[in-house]
Fold each of these.
Amino acid sequence: MATIAIIGAGNVGSQVARVAVRTGHDVVLANSRGGEGLDALIDELGPRARAAGSVADATERADVVVVAVPIHSYEGLPSKAFDGRIVIDTGNYYPSWNGDIAELDDESTTTAEILQRALPGASVVKALNNLNAAELTTTGSPAGTENRRALAMAGDDTNAKRVVQELLDSFGFDVVDVGPLSEGWRFQRDLPAYGIRHTAAEMRSALARALRYRDLPDA
């Protein structure tokens, strides 16, 4: 069982917290308001959860850190607090929400690579972004279940990916490793691996069919 720090307690962060506690992990939640507004969620989650007064407090003893804040907030994270940590990037780029980000518009990088740049001392893994947040608590199943749902993952650090794969397996999902962070675009919004329930075999096929946005038929 792991201690999971969750930075951001919105729709994604709160659902990660729920599935984590349900599957026996401890969670520490931090938000931009020093923990203010988290009381109801902490009460719901029970004794395995606590609120942190700061991001540094949340990450201090965490085995894995889940970043669930808008992409435009990545540069404002306290970088040193993440040194030596395994960090999951859950972000998806929606210009209408994030504002235009030129290097994502021209597809020269990915959200996880931006987070890795902002947190150079961490090992970033892209995961938990290609399903609806509510489905984290409703579509998982035990290992070996027929037609078990699969999620995609990308990262540059082999050990970090192993840890994340074990965590997602405990949440109830098979995991398909796409390769390095630079391949994380393959399960971005509007692509075949995004938002659709796939088995591991189906996920591999969907990832292989992915096209850059500029190459999509209606681009």
Amino acid sequence: MLKVTLVKSKIGNTPANRATVKALGLNKIGSSNTFEDSASIRGMIHKVKHLLKVEEVDGVVVRRRQDGKAVSEKRAAKAAGAVAPVKEKAPAKAKAEPKKEAVKEESAEAKPKRTTKKKTEEAKS
């Protein structure tokens, strides 16, 4: 079994390299996936080896669905009926009251509102 981890960004690589990393199921830096050791997987890893860290792992069980996709241990346990521990959320913060807008007093020297040229021409005539 091979554990493949993305350690460098796909940005700046060719579209073929990006597609290979995506086909390996690696989306973000630090994400990893486990594969059975085969020639096709080895070829994909070799193509983008400058972006990956590869470890050989023994005793890792990768559960596969009928459609061939891997299932994480957490999901496999959930499907088997085991209850995963639930993390408690922190209490929500109280919303701050909105600030009251300052009342603007109109002074005698206040500027008149702008108008379009058409309106000003009509006012002059």
Amino acid sequence: MSIPPDFLIMIIVAVVISAAFIILPIPHWVMARIQGAKITFMEAMMMSFRRIKARKILSAVSLAVSANIDISAEELEKHTVEGGDVKKVVLTLIIVKKKGHQLYKNDVFESDFKGTILKDFSDFS
């Protein structure tokens, strides 16, 4: 008994699509796009190929965009590569913005590298 070619093609397509959802950050990319992040699927896919935790970056970008914080995926990716914690950076920027203070991203990045991010901005509370 042989398998019909159409059925075999459908199985191969289903396996490829399933593998793409497991390997690539498709759901996180879709969520980031819905939130209004300006990131292409190719950029998200390349993060995965560069061994960057794309899900982490895309989640942070979505959070930043929903809080109306101007920060790009490239900036967060660079910060991650340098050893920073993007979630902590974005949350700090959101907290400081909600308090009505002006803060520069580079100050938060630098503070994160020093390990003093919470101490440096505690006076904003």
Amino acid sequence: MYKRIVLAYDGSEAGQAALVDSRELAGRDGAELYVIAVVPPPLEFAGGEVGIYDSGQEDRERTEYQGILDQGISRLAEMGFAAQGKVVVGDAVDQIVRHAEAVNADLIVVGHHREKSWAARWWRGSVSKSLVEHSPCSVLVVIHRSPA
């Protein structure tokens, strides 16, 4: 059914669950699996509308996200599955959509952890919700449930 699957991976527990699900889907359908890790834009806000660019911060974060991506790729390899990986910088939704379009993906897989408080749900934007609105293909949102 699926020929090309993009996994948006951040190493979180929800991301780990999405990794397993995407591997199972790709293995079942013989699909190519592309893993993408998105580094947030390198702009720090000093207050108000003033932003400070720190080029060293971008390098440090890129290195951190490369390590996260490498761990995900290694975990897939341990499960007997090869995947291509890429670290990109920018808005998560924009970069995931752009990558899905570039590889002509049939499916995007993303992990999601439900926020417990209404304030956290209101304050933080939902990458998975935005992906559903902007994706060029189907989106599988893997819900991570914390142990009770």
